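Hi R.,

Here's the chain you asked about this morning:
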Amino acid sequence: MTGTPNGSAPAHPEGTVLALNSPKLNGIRRLTALDTVRARIAMAVDLGLLSPGERLPQTDAIAEALGVGEITVRRALSSLCTDGVLERRRGRNGGTLVAEQPTRGVVDAAEAYHGQTAEVHRLIDERTVLECGIAHLATGAASPAALDGLDLLVAAMDRAESWAEFHSCDERFHLAVAHATGLDASVQTYGTVLRRLYAYYLPYPLAALRESNDEHRALVAALRAGDAARAADIARRHVETLHRTMFVGLMR
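And the predicted structure, written out as tokens:
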């Protein structure tokens, strides 16, 4: 997943990860970076992925995970507080939290995501094909150092304290598997599809992300064992579940 992840991944320029200028993201490319943050957090609340009273991560972590600037995140969170989706609390246990009785369906920008069901399913299928091939190739090509690096990212995701921290590590993990093939062309092609799909990811409960990390762990074990068929099958199941777990499946 979101998915997802410790060192931190380098921050992406605003809009780079979201690929908002891609012609294949017609439904959301007209949205500003501010609108995309508002829509993704509001949708996570509407779908129950973020629970009433749940504290959001720090703005810098959200900014890194969603590929936008911190100022954009601050503005988005402030506006969602005004809308009644979030609330701010002061004091030691304060911060920005999901409102106890959040207003739902108030962010118009979310409709741009709702209309992209076919596009998201297509991207999931494209990623499935690429990820299975990458897992198969990485089985024989991954160096011990590369495998050790994957283990470190799995451990970082085990320690992640928020969906934002997990998501940043998750992206690094999947790109690292692609790099382990030694084929630059595969990294470029896969990276493009991955980031287009990440443009649609929402915050997810950490418990669900932990389960996806078990699949990361199993994939690394298969790579170490030289079991290409098992590695490809783990990769397939890991991605295909997105048809059910991303918002396009949860809205049904």
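Confidence is low (pLDDT under 50) at residues 1-25.

Let me know if you need anything else.
M.
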